[in-house]
Write a structure and sequence with these properties.
- The protein is an alpha/beta fold and 177 residues long.
- Helices cover 38% and strands 17% of the residues.
- It has helices at residues 9-17, 33-48, 65-76, 90-102, 136-152; strands spanning 2-4, 23-27, 58-60, 84-87, 112-116, 130-133, 160-162, 165-167.
- It has a six-stranded mixed beta sheet with strand order 3-2-4-5-6-8, with helices on both faces.
- The radius of gyration is 17 Å and the shape is elongated.
- The mean pLDDT is 88.
Length: 177
């Protein structure tokens, strides 16, 4: 069994350390296992900090920039919008940055945004995207070790957990009061 690089815990830890308590989420469709795992992990990460997940701050939509743009607009237009967003991929984050810009919301001064995957373009957004990076090579090595262990001992059950690395760039800042 794998539980690999799907946990946004480092992003939540980072945002809470910056003083954020109203943290929203732009999620991919939850019928897909990866999105469901990230969603569950997002909720658990908030709870580890004593933050009650706010369902209205969680928007489940698509995968691309346009979905992130539309979802972020829904949150930005709230009377008490989140001060930070965790997105399930970097394209959603890029759409959220564009939505914030279109409504005069400064990223990161008024809205911190964290992506997921550390795609190449994340370094070139404005502001540069803070994101979670997973290591496919490291995950692969752990899976091979698990497979070899199962070959040697067929009744063994293994578990792989690889925490993604937080890459802090310019899209996050202390929460505004």
């Amino acid at each position: 069994m794998t539980d690999s690089a799907d946990c946004p815990q480092p992003a939540i830890d980072h945002l809470v350390a910056l003083g954020h308590r109203r943290i929203g989420c732009l999620a991919e469709p939850l019928q897909y296992a990866l999105a469901a795992t990230r969603h569950r992990s997002f909720i658990e990460a908030l709870e580890t900090h004593g933050i009650e997940p706010e369902p209205r701050y969680i928007v489940v939509d698509g995968y691309r920039e346009q979905s992130g743009f539309q979802a972020a607009l829904r949150l930005i237009d709230m009377p008490d919008p989140p001060t930070a967003l965790v997105t399930f991929n970097d394209l959603l984050a890029m759409g959220a940055i564009a939505a914030a810009r279109s409504h005069g919301v400064d990223v990161p001064a008024r809205l911190s945004i964290v992506g997921f995957d550390d795609i190449h373009a994340a370094r070139y957004t404005s502001p540069q995207l803070t994101t979670l990076r997973h290591s496919p090579g490291l995950i692969g090595r752990h899976l091979i070790e698990l497979l070899l262990g199962n070959i040697a001992e067929p009744s063994s059950v293994g578990h792989v957990h690889v925490t993604p690395e937080l890459v802090v760039r310019k899209s996050t800042a202390p929460a505004c009061s």
